[in-house]
Amino acid sequence: MIILGIDPGFERMGCAILEKSPGVEKLIYSSCLISSRNDPHEKRLLVLAKGLKKIIKDSKPDIMAIEKLFFTANQKTALKVAEARGVALLLAAENNLKVFEFTPLEVKMAMTGYGRAEKDQVRKMVLAMLKINTNKGPASSAGKLDDEIDAIAIALACPAKES
């Protein structure tokens, strides 16, 4: 099963493609789609949509795993993230992808067994589960942004079988 993991954001949208079967996980691809702060919001959403559309076309995922929106004190930011999340959900529907949604707490629980785990604990588990060597060139975690690691964790949290 090919899973597209999405950590929604309007400045940086984490994306990961994971091949997963019971007991086996393999990272195929991960990146961050980045929009320019200088562009109007609608243009930023278009940049994210085009990038995500290409990832879906190239990887042909079976399902999408996406983080549920977590409201913070900054409602203006939360609304923009919700719109970016809407772009991802629209593309899931257009491509007939079943969608699994996870709260940050659920992802942390799936990765570490503790829903209040720190980001670094989740990062370490992602790297360990996928056997990513942090000392080797481009495959190292040093080049992966938090949003990218979050997208990988979201994909890892997704079940290997469609339910």
Short description:
With 163 residues, the protein is of the alpha/beta class. The chain has helices at residues 41-59, 75-94, 104-112, 119-129, 146-157; strands spanning 2-7, 12-21, 24-34, 63-67, 98-102.
- Describe the strand arrangement of the main beta sheet, using strand numbers: 3-2-1-4-5
Largest sheet: 5 strands, mixed
What's the overall geometry? Answer: globular
Mean pLDDT over the residues: 90
Runs in which pLDDT lies below 50 for 5 or more consecutive residues are none
Give helix % range: 40-55%
Structural class: alpha/beta
Give the ordered list of helices and strands: EEEHEHEHHH
Termini gap:
12 Å
The CATH class label is Alpha Beta
Query: Please, how many helices?
Result: 5
The CATH superfamily appears as Ribonuclease H-like superfamily/Ribonuclease H
Query: How many structural units, i.e. domains?
Result: 1
Q: What radius of gyration results from the CA coordinates?
A: 15 Å
Number of strands: 5
Which short descriptors sum up this protein?
about 160 residues; alpha/beta; Nucleotidyltransferase, domain 5
Could you characterize what this model shows?
- It contains 5 helices and 5 strands; from the N terminus they run E-E-E-H-E-H-E-H-H-H.
- With about 160 residues, the protein is α/β, with parallel strands linked by helices.
- The chain has one domain: Nucleotidyltransferase, domain 5 (2-Layer Sandwich), CATH 3.30.420.10.
- The chain has a 5-stranded mixed beta sheet with strand order 3-2-1-4-5.
